[in-house]
Structure formats: structure tokens, C-alpha cells
Write a structure and sequence with these properties.
The chain has 408 residues and is an all-alpha fold. The chain is 75% helix and 0% strand. The longest helix is centred in the last third of the chain and has 34 residues. The chain has 17 helices and no strands.
Length: 408
């Protein structure tokens, strides 16, 4: 019964997610991401060519990445609010349900592990003397550890105290660090054996601890709600999600920027958009993350061509991901009643995006100045300004019109 319930919910969830995938994997976004991956791969390849001797840094980087990749992937329970009432008498049978949830939740982390290890192996081979065949020890080792990690997340569904869960997480990540160290400094086979030993030992401890406790339904509902909210926040960058409830923060310390906007008829939506950006966590948070990643990649690079590429890519991604701001106040009745031309609304968004992208271009150029000459910095700065103007004046109106047609 529980397995059938799980399968039915998986089908419903997949159907819902497939509805949104067409909005994510379309237009220029996928092409831009492919170019970004290609550029990073090119830079990585050039870096590998500079390695000529053994360096312990390769193993240290491997330990950090192996431990870090195990944090990817949360337990997807697909629990619903009504379960707290109707599934309570079937609590013992829910073990079957959560076992299915654990194994399905392992798919995405396993894919991430394979890709991460595959990308890291050239560095380990060049810097630390490993063979590419060692990947067949590293991948199973990490998947086994991730299965143990998901098992601990199932246990967390029964824990009453958050302090106890924090202790378990610290202990597990300490163990993951030790197993990764064994694999990279002793032998890949030792790492695999260590992972198996951890999995078997933890399963014994888990069964004892789990049998003595009952499920915390409110906690389960909250965790699943937060997991789905993170998914919807990502999808909301491409299309509106009715199920997503936005949150705002006062951020009074940013009012200084709003005070500089003149209070007149033509700036009504400019003020609203600026306020939504500063107070809406999905917009400002996205902007900060993209700027941070762009500065990091540009600062670590050593090629003028790559700096130009990263500047163009991240300016595009920033502008593209902030386009939904245009529709942010469409459901606000007072905004619809304003005696303002539709073109003023578009001009307001152009003004805000132009300002944000200009500031981003300056930061990326400043980060790139570490390894570029004065002339190259000047060319990069002028290029970012030209790209900014082209995006806001030509691409933005076309894209907004297309988005409006899709919503009709």
C-alpha cells in the first residue's frame, strides 16, 4: 500500500515538474550555460598543462570537494499536510514509504558525484599521480557515503531536538572527511572499504535509534515545504509559480538608495521596482550570487578573452534572470489603476537593469584588473557598457513582449 502511495505521488510530482521544465530549458539560457561550461573547461584544461610535478594541493582539494559534494541532495519525502492526520495510524508502515523516498533521493546526488569526480580526475592524475581507473573506486565510495547521509536524514524525521541532529551532521561530515583522506592519501581501495564499514556500522546504529522513536509530522511537513520552496524559487526565475509565496525584508539601511529617486509620475514604477529588488530576497539574493561568482571566475582567470566571455555571460544571466521584475506588481490593483503609460513601465525596468548591470560590469572589471593590462581593462569596461546598452535597449523589449504573449 505504502509503495503504491509513493509511486502515485512520484508520478504527480514528476508531472508537475515537467510542466515547468519547458520554461527552463528554452531560449538562449541553455546555450549560454553550455558556453559557460565550455569556457570553464577551456580554462581548466590550460591550467592542467601548467602542472609538471607532484603537489599535495591536488589531494587536499580532492578531500574538500569529496566532502562537499556529499552535501548535495536532500531527502524528498513528498509528504502532504493531510498525512499528519490520515497516515498517523499507519506510522509503522511508513518505514517502507521513506525507504523508497531515500533511494529515489539518491539519483540526483549520484549524478552530481559522477560529474564531480569525472571533472576532478584530470587534476588528481596530473598533480597527485592517480590513475583514471581510480574513479571506479571514488564514485562507489561517495555514493555509499551519500546513501548513509540520506539514511541519517530519514532518522532526522524522528528526532525531536535540533541539537541532536546538528551533532549527528558534524559527526558524519567528520567521518566523510576521514574516509576521503584515506582514499586520497592511503589508497582508493581503502577509501571504498572505509565507506562500506561506515555504511554497515551506521545502519546498525540507525535501526536501534530509529525503532525507539516516532515520526515528528510537523517537522516533516516543514522540511518538505522548505525543500519545495527552494525548487519553486529556482523555477520562478523563468516563469510565475502560483504555489510560491514570496517573502520580503524591511532592510531600512538600504532606504538611502530609494531616497535618491525623484518622486514624480515617470518614476512610479522605477521606485516600485527598486524597492522590490532591495526588499525581495529572490531578486537581490540572485544578483549578489551572480556578481560574486562572476568576480571569482574573472579574478581567477588569466586570459583577456576569458574575462570578456565571463563579463558578457554573467551580464546576460543577470539581466535575463531579473526580467520577471516587470510582472512583479501585475496582481496589485493599485498599480493597474495608476494613470501611467505602459511604455513608462518598460522604461523604468530598463533604467533599473541598466544601473545594476553597469555596477556589475564595474565589479567584474575590477576583479579582472588583477591579471590584465590597463588597455585590456579599459577595453573590458567599454565592452561591458556596450553590452549593457544593447541588452537593455534592444533585447529587453523583445523578451518582455514574448513573455507577455506566453502569459496571455
Amino acid at each position: 500500500m505504502m509503495i503504491e502511495l509513493w509511486k502515485r505521488r512520484v508520478r504527480q510530482h514528476q508531472k508537475k515538474m515537467m510542466k515547468y521544465l519547458k520554461y527552463i530549458f528554452n531560449d538562449h539560457f541553455v546555450i549560454v550555460c553550455l558556453f559557460l561550461v565550455g569556457a570553464m573547461g577551456y580554462a581548466y584544461s590550460n591550467y592542467l598543462k601548467t602542472i609538471t610535478s607532484y603537489d599535495v594541493k591536488g589531494q587536499l582539494i580532492g578531500i574538500i570537494i569529496f566532502t562537499g559534494v556529499l552535501s548535495i541532495g536532500k531527502l524528498a519525502t513528498l509528504i502532504q499536510a493531510a498525512d499528519a492526520v490520515f497516515m498517523l495510524p499507519k506510522e509503522e508502515a511508513m518505514e517502507e514509504y521513506f525507504e523508497q523516498a531515500k533511494w529515489r533521493s539518491l539519483w540526483l546526488p549520484s549524478f552530481a558525484i559522477i560529474v564531480t569526480v569525472g571533472a576532478l580526475m584530470p587534476l588528481l592524475v596530473a598533480m597527485s599521480g592517480f590513475a583514471f581507473s581510480d574513479m571506479f573506486y571514488f564514485v562507489p565510495m561517495l555514493i555509499i557515503l551519500k546513501e548513509t547521509d540520506l539514511g541519517s536524514q530519514v532518522l532526522n524525521l524522528k528526532l525531536k531536538e535540533s541539537k541532536e541532529w546538528i551533532k549527528i551532521r558534524f559527526l558524519l561530515f567528520g567521518i566523510y572527511f576521514i574516509v576521503s583522506t584515506l582514499a586520497l592519501f592511503i589508497s582508493p581501495i581503502m577509501g571504498l572499504v572505509g565507506a562500506v564499514a561506515v555504511a554497515v556500522s551506521y545502519r546498525v546504529v540507525l535501526s536501534r535509534k530509529s525503532n525507539a522513536q516516532t515520526y515528528q509530522w510537523e517537522k516533516m511537513l516543514k522540511d518538505e515545504s522548505n525543500r519545495m520552496k527552494r525548487i519553486y524559487q529556482f523555477i520562478n526565475l523563468f516563469t510565475d509559480i502560483p504555489a510560491l509565496k514570496g517573502s520580503v525584508k524591511r532592510r531600512a539601511y538600504l532606504d538611502i538608495f530609494l531616497k535618491k529617486i525623484q518622486k514624480n509620475k515617470s518614476n512610479v514604477f522605477y521606485y516600485l521596482y527598486a524597492r522590490a529588488f532591495l526588499r525581495g530576497t529572490e531578486y537581490s539574493g540572485l544578483y549578489i550570487r551572480l556578481v560574486g561568482i562572476a568576480m571569482l571566475l574573472s579574478g581567477l582567470g588569466s586570459s583577456f578573452i576569458l574575462s570578456i566571455f565571463f563579463t558578457a555571460i554573467f551580464l546576460y544571466l543577470t539581466g535575463f534572470q531579473l526580467l520577471p521584475l516587470y510582472f512583479h506588481f501585475d496582481n496589485l490593483s493599485s498599480a493597474v489603476l495608476y494613470p501611467i503609460k505602459q511604455n513608462d513601465k518598460l522604461q523604468s525596468l530598463k533604467k533599473l537593469l541598466s544601473l545594476l548591470m553597469m555596477f556589475e560590469g564595474l565589479l567584474i572589471t575590477a576583479a579582472s584588473a588583477i591579471h590584465l593590462s590597463f588597455i585590456e581593462v579599459l577595453v573590458l569596461l567599454i565592452g561591458s557598457v556596450v553590452f549593457n546598452l544593447g541588452f537593455c535597449q534592444f533585447y529587453l523589449p523583445i523578451r518582455i513582449n514574448k513573455m507577455m504573449k506566453l502569459q496571455q
